[in-house]
Amino acid sequence: MHPALRYTSVVLAFCITSAGYAQQEAFFVPSERAPVYQDLESTQLLSNPAQDPVSWPDANIVHWPAFDSAPLAAVDAVNDSQPGHPFRVGAVRPIPLGNLTVQTNGTSSVLADGTSLWTLKLHVPGALNVRVHFSSFSLPDGASVVVCGVGGAYAHSFEGEGLAQAGAFWSQTVWSDTVLIEYRSGAGPGQPNIEIDQILHGYRMPEPAVIDLPMPQPEDGSPRGGSCLEDVSCHSVDANACDSVGQMDYISGGFGYVCTGALLNDADPNTLAGYFLTANHCISDQATASTLEVFWFYQTLTCNGTIQIGPSTLGSTLLANSSGSDFCFLRLADDPENGQGLAAWTTAGPSNPVHGIHHPGGSYKRYSAGHLTSAAPICGSYPLSNYWYLDWDTGMTHGGSSGSPLFNPAWQVVGQLYGHCYFTGCEPDCTNASCNNHIYGRLDVSYPSIAGHLNSVASDDGFEDNDSLAQARRITAGAHFLKLIDFDDYFAVTTCSQGNVVVTATFATAQMDLDLFLLTPTNGQLAASTGSGGTESITGSRPPGTYIIRVNKDHGWGGDYTLTISAPNDGIGPDCNSNGVPDACDLNVLSNLRSDFSHTSNPTGRWSYGYYQWTGLPIDPDNFVLFPHVPAIGGVYTAGWQWYSSSIGGEPNVLHNEGVPANGVPTGWTTLHPGLSAQGSVARWTAPLSGTAHIWGQTLPGDAAAERLHILKEGTGMNGM
After folding, report:
1. Total domain count, the chain
2. What is the tens place of the pLDDT at every residue in 535-563?
3. CA nearest 90: which of 291, 330, 264, 336?
4. Which has the closest alpha carbon to 553: 489, 642, 473, 604?
């Protein structure tokens, strides 16, 4: 008997033995959960709002001729039973009568508000799903194109130069044989440049709601594709691990394929980068990576129950790949913002049992569990030094599972699926594990090529943390050179007289697309700028008061931007309302210990954190010792905490809780912890001007020990408890 490989491009005809797996120094990162953000772009069709869009005029429908998939299906049947062929699900087809443009196809109209519309319907009979290729795409600022199914289903909006500002791209998948395309003009001048030259005809992958994958062994009558496929919802799995796994659709060489991959968490506590691990034999070049669409939460709601499919992410950048351990490491075009998990990972060798979560045949999420082995068959060009070999005890992988993560017992990723190694005549199924092994590329082997990405820590600006309305940081008029590396920056500006408030953000569209909002302190929206160019601006006359500026990363990875603010008497000067004396307006919520806290800078603004050695009152201000930034000692506090502490053992310290309520400290609160030898932890505020400062605060009990709280002015007690 000879070993062969499944889902690879090489068939090997010899077998080797190995002494086992080598071990080396291990690195690891825990898992994390992405936030859930509302998409701020409108994807609702404007045309015929009172009618189903299927009633669009017949003149704007482009019909494809019937498609005979039988020849492709015949080839697929052969390829699926032999190694060396990826799992194909679609075929690229040209436009029947030439490329489609705004000028030559579709229907144009003007709405009552002056908005120009262009609508086009594509009908591809027999298609299970359709993707549209825009060969040329450039829109005026403020304009957009919506691509969706009948009734507005599976909608996605594109602006500017389209996906990743590339000027040419593949749209999202529309799970229908009919695609609706609507262009809507913006307020700016200019005409759209839109050209469509191809579509992807999905002929093999069923609808998400009714999918049922055939297996290479007799069906056992189960409603979910045979005994070899185990519904992930029927097993106890780690939530972050499960929700890190995505079903991949991509296009290469004129055909559509499916694979599986997973988001990996990085070591940077300030970011949630969309680092995505899959197999090199799935994606190995940037042209293919650009076509990637990843579907999230494609799984049953309950064990063998109703199937759901969540949002998708379009596009990616290839960062590293190698055939040596068959890994492909991507960064998705948009960082995760739909509540996905970001999987933990380690370079340590796994123990048993190991787990797999995957999308066989492009279907909903399945589960497998098994054990590592070094027993034959071992395929020679895929040695144990680069690959983990294992046998499944529960479940089975299949074409389309390639690239899926292998988890150790602690639900840390240790590799990604390559395929099968099996003796000739013993093609893998769920009954013959003794003559075949499953192969996963080893993460510890791939790690040196991706360590720079997973371990890099991006610097942020001095206004952090200001990622939510509750954390809005006070900002003055003028130009501020800032950085956005997560999703949002919030700022507060106070005006003391009626006047024009102008806020402008400028940025590089190659890095990101920003949206700009002016809000009330209770999150009511006053104005917005959501264009597609490198400048967003808001202008308007406003009464005196405090306003919140939200800078939102709509697309991209983040980067540098300039925020310029012009406001009347912006609440920072010595007499902003010109009444001759400093008063409450001049110091109106000028500083806030909770929202002003920064874990990257000490001092930060008017705050500095440190301690005094307690000897009684008064205290000599010159004895104030500034805290360095020291990581947690002994792992006492979880990753949800940001802190400063002394270098004498971790206490005294000042901490800011950015996680769940713990140790008596609510989310978003700052806590002061004394030292073990009568050191008093201090948050010191320096007044920006002379006058009356109004101090307001609230304290909560922390630990069970007795507490003493002092509010001091220049070391002299003003009030004590």
Report:
1. 4
2. 999 999 998 888 999 999 988 999 999 99
3. 291
4. 489
User: CA-to-CA distance for 477 and 675, rounded, in angstroms?
Assistant: 40
Q: Tell me: the pLDDT tens digits for 168-218?
A: 999 999 999 999 999 999 877 889 999 999 999 999 875 443 333 333 333
Q: Which residue segment(s) compose the domain that 676 sits in? A: 607-720
Rounded Cα distance between 542 and 568, Å, is: 9
Mark whether 253 and 338 lie in a shared domain. Answer: yes
Residue 334 is classified by DSSP as B
**Residue 98 vs residues 95, 104, 296, 514: alpha-carbon distances, Å:** 5, 10, 35, 36
CB contact set of 499 (below 8 Å; sequence gap of 6+): 541, 542, 567, 568, 569
CA distance 216 to 223: 16
* CA–CA separation, 507 and 41 (whole Å): 19
- DSSP 8-state assignment for residue 161: T
**Residues 531 and 635 occupy one common structural domain:** no
Q: Are residues 181 and 59 in the same domain?
A: yes
CB 261 within 8 A of CB 245: yes
583-615 pLDDT, tens digit per residue, is 545 544 456 676 677 766 777 767 888 877 777
Does some domain include residue 574? no
Cβ atoms of 257 and 86 closer than 8 Å: yes
| Cβ neighbours, 10 Å, residue 71 | 8
Can you give the pTM of this predicted structure? Answer: 0.75
How far is 11 from 355, CA to CA, in rounded Å? 26
